[in-house]
Design a protein that fits this description.
18 helices, 3% strand
């Protein structure tokens, strides 16, 4: 009997090891696809399918396993609300099937389920250390991907390579330095700057936690590289994310270390330190930008080149103040107005994400995203408005409830998070969440996109909630 039990346990441990390996492989494939989607050189390229189809097959197998053992995963914090949110999207795509976006909507739903069911959901009976190790492994892979694309971006800038792509549908894509901004190897400098911002704080975390000198030097270089990209991209989103990330990451660390005398002095010192760090996050990119432009001005002043060459050199300066002086929102206020109009046209279930343009063309031909002097906008550039228009009241209620439930869970368990031996990791995860949430003010991250940003958000949040849930289960066991 004992021998049979030992054989069973050996088989179980081996199967769990294989399962964990497959989960890690899925997360790595998801990340690689995210970077390929963000890169202007590979966006829409067949190379994405090379990674995407194996990921879809693997994801389907892992989802099937989790459905078989669903009681383990159904206890994940807030997962019921996310399931209801996904169901509301399914209802919206069925209601709006006549607009022809069924294939695209199915793809959106599939990746949404992958994010909720495989990146975020976790086995409550499993040791959260496994999730932590997987997250850190994926984080290092993330740093490699971000470094490659940022270095490629500066290489394009150094050799003066610049190109423009005008697809039949969708936005115009750029490579290199265009209109006072470094697009580089990314098709959207705001997405790129947010990716770079996450890389900054991942590098800071690994610099703090790893002791090898060579590794620390690499992480310092990573921080410098990514802050430089944020600067040269001239992304206000990136700068905002850098300030928000600095505030939350160092707030967590400062409050953890109670090395000040007296409560009033503690508060005063923390406030001053946070102000200094947030100011650095704002002024360092600004100083780099001004220094670079000063050098460029000097070169132009001393140049004996033709007028055409001089104009070219002026275009290489960082800054797009003229582009946004008349409209600080860069068309976003008008786009958000269209989102409200879409919501009013279908307030309960929305119009579904893939049918935004088709619905607007048929029912709201005069709305801004269709009728403007620039292009047709298929993105509403704000997560709240995106969900409001795509899934209506049904979707926004479940998502807001999940957000409130998540925030309450963090506040309620703040004492455990601060006193845990993994408080630095928790500081990093909360920093990631804050950065991604800040970026959703002007982008549709988290839900409808396959990107490195959304992966880090759901992976980090799942890891955090796994520790919180494990902490509560241990407390209940001790009480019994």
């Amino acid at each position: 009997m004992k021998r049979n039990h030992a054989i069973y346990m050996g088989f179980y441990r081996k199967s769990q090891s294989i399962l964990q390996g497959l989960e890690l492989l899925f997360k790595c494939l998801f990340l690689i696809i995210g970077f390929l989607q963000a890169c202007s050189l590979t966006f829409g390229n067949i190379i994405i399918s090379v990674f995407q189809w194996p990921m879809i097959f693997l994801g389907a197998v892992l989802l099937l396993y989790r459905l078989i053992y669903f009681p383990k995963y159904l206890k994940t914090r807030g997962i019921i609300l996310l399931i209801l949110f996904a169901i509301s999207y399914f209802i919206s795509m069925l209601v709006n099937y006549q607009y022809g976006g069924l294939h695209e909507n199915t793809r959106y739903l599939m990746f949404m389920v992958f994010q909720f069911g495989l990146l975020y959901a976790f086995d409550v009976e499993r040791d959260p250390e496994i999730n932590r190790k997987q997250m850190l492994f994926v984080s290092k892979l993330y740093l490699c991907g971000a470094a490659v694309l940022s270095l490629a971006s500066f290489c394009f800038m150094a050799i003066g390579y610049s190109k423009q792509f005008v697809p039949s549908e969708g936005p115009v894509y750029y490579i290199g330095f265009n209109y006072g901004r470094l697009f580089g190897a990314y098709w959207d400098p705001n997405i790129a700057a947010t990716i770079a911002c996450l890389a900054v704080f991942l590098s800071i975390y690994f610099f703090i936690t790893e002791k090898q000198l060579f590794h620390r030097i690499v992480y310092v270089l990573s921080v410098l590289l990514q802050i430089s990209y944020i600067t040269f991209s001239d992304s206000r989103t990136g700068k905002l994310c850098l300030i928000v990330g600095s505030f939350f990451f160092f707030l967590f660390l400062f409050v953890k270390h109670r090395f000040f005398l007296g409560k009033i002095k503690q508060i005063a010192c923390v406030v001053v330190l946070l102000f200094v760090i947030s100011s650095l996050a704002y002024f360092v990119p600004k100083a780099i930008k001004q220094g670079y432009n000063y050098v460029q001005n000097k070169i132009v002043t001393m140049s004996s080149d033709s007028d055409e060459c001089v104009e070219k050199k002026k275009e290489e300066q960082i800054g797009r103040e003229q582009d946004i002086s008349s409209d600080p929102s860069n068309r976003r206020f008008d786009i958000w107005k269209s989102a409200v109009e879409l919501f009013e046209a279908s307030p309960i279930v929305g119009v579904s994400r893939a049918n935004t343009l088709r619905f607007a063309e048929v029912n709201l031909p005069d709305t801004y995203i269709i009728n403007n002097d620039h292009m047709k906008f298929d993105s509403l550039h704000n997560l709240f408005f995106e969900i409001l228009a795509s899934q209506g009241i049904l979707g926004i209620i479940f998502f807001v409830l999940f957000a409130v439930w998540t925030l309450w869970g963090i506040i309620k368990n703040a004492k455990y998070l601060w006193e845990s031996s993994h408080y630095k990791l928790f500081a990093l995860i909360i920093c990631i969440m804050a950065i991604v949430c800040a970026s959703t003010l002007v982008m549709a991250e988290i839900v409808y996109v396959t990107s490195p940003i959304s992966l880090m958000f759901w992976l980090g949040l799942g890891c955090l909630n796994h520790y919180i849930g494990n902490h509560h289960m241990l407390q209940k066991a001790e009480c019994k």
